Amino acid sequence: MKLWQKEGVTTADQIERFTVGRDREMDLYLAPFDVLGNLAHAQMLETINLLTSEELSQLTVELKKIYQQIEDGQFVIEEGVEDVHSQVELMLTRALGDTGKKIHSGRSRNDQVLVDMKLFTRDRLWQVAESVQRVFDRLVSRSEQHKDDLLPGYTHLQIAMPSSFGLWFGAYAEALADDMLTLQTAYRLANRNPLGSGAGYGSSFPLNRSLTTELLGFEGMHVNVVYAQMSRGKTEQTALTALAAVAATISRMAMDICLYNSQNFGFLTLPDALTTGSSIMPHKKNPDVAELLRAKTNRMKALPMEVTLVMSNLPSGYHRDMQLLKEILMPAFDEILDCLDITDFMLEHIQVKPNLLNDPKYDLLFSVERVNELVLQGVPFREAYRIVGKEIADHTYHPPRVLHHTHEGSIGNLGTDLIQQTMEKALAGFGADKAQSAIKELLA
């Protein structure tokens, strides 16, 4: 029987197929986290005398066996079993009889799903943070490596002022440092304990919610039991907003790479191993990796809106609509992690072309340098601007090609150390060590 099913009552097969949908598939993501939630809940039940110490010991042994099956890839949700929560409880009941049935005391499937989703989201957000840091480190390394290789800077897709590959790589590094703050916010919202909220209205059992909060390594709890249920949707939307921020940074960089790799720009070269050819044009070396990154990450920008639409106009309390959030959230983590991995690989192998600005077609890039040269000689800026404009019009313009950019964040002073400090501070704000230590202790 299902966790909610009553004696003698059955649901039509067509209705069951429609209501379950892809939930069993999505629930495989939750399996290890469901076991963790059960381990903490069981310990708490023993402290309020709803389990004996012997029953707790038996449940703990069996739950750790199930966790190992999951780790070994041997865990399945059996045919006819509705979800991961039912499967775990079924396995405990087969092994321990009535003791296995006691694990659900003081809990609703609502808060069981919630705690699983919180633990899953917290775990995956930290994985994304680690992957973002790897790409960040790669960008910082390439920025320092190419700080002296100049690059045309553009506004309105017209040449504007001198830039450098040091600035270009470093710009995306700093963008990821900002994105890490968004990930941190999402992580901290996911890092709050809903367990004990039941169906959204608490329990008459004297549950120790502070204990399960500590056992699962949460930063704190969702205190109000109604709001704990209302955090469903908000947690997913915030997480996806953070992923969309990372995706936006990657998609913009991918677009730059597509442009800079083209013959019309010719600033970067992708090695043969990172390109594909044409079935008809033998000269083609297409930047398919960057193009697919652009498309995949652009799609991810829409995901927060999908959650918004699912949750639109829902009143407080639980509603089955929320089941669909799993299908939006869970695959998104796989997608962004894959995109970050291939981004790091591409950045490692991308080749920079030196001496780009030696070409006379980039003379106009140095017009501001010429204006500033006159200003330093005592000419008022507006007059200097007019003089250089006339030089360009009269073809008497001869710009200086030596740059003197010394302020923080400029060509001559990238400020890499300051950007790294921003990233380190953002990473420290996750407080991930506490969560990881708690989980290790729970499984010990």
UniProtKB/TrEMBL annotation:
InterPro entries: Argininosuccinate_lyase, Fumarase/histidase_N, Fumarate_lyase_CS, Fumarate_lyase_fam, Fumarate_lyase_N, L-Aspartase-like. HAMAP family: Arg_succ_lyase. Pathway: Amino-acid biosynthesis; L-arginine biosynthesis; L-arginine from L-ornithine and carbamoyl phosphate: step 3/3. PROSITE patterns: FUMARATE_LYASES (PS00163). It catalyses: 2-(N(omega)-L-arginino)succinate = fumarate + L-arginine. Its EC number is 4.3.2.1. This is Argininosuccinate lyase. It comes from Spirosoma foliorum. Pfam families: Lyase_1. The gene is argH. Belongs to the lyase 1 family. Argininosuccinate lyase subfamily.
